[in-house]
Amino acid sequence: MEKKKYYVNVGTGEISQISYDDNDDFIIHATKDEVAQLRSKLNHLHDASFGTFIRAHIPIMPYHNDKSNDDYDRNITEAFQMLYDCGDEQTKSHIVEMGVLTDNHM
Question: Among 13, 14, 48, 104, which is most exposed with the fewest C-beta within 10 angstroms?
Fold first, then answer.
């Protein structure tokens, strides 16, 4: 499959082939299937984030026993791994500098 250039902003969940405003935090070259997988990860990240918001308002639920937090952590790591794998050199360098992936992921 043909890879195309995409601009990704994890914070807003945006994946676009057009660069505008602040949507170019990460630049990747990906197939349609890879973009669909990344979109799924970002959607799951949003869902897990909402779950952590709800949990934060229930004082009797401890943070370390919360499935939503575990889901969020897993999805953010998987999303950054995909960005690293499909990213250009600047994207890879940025992710390394962020320290969000361990050595065994890269």
Answer: 104
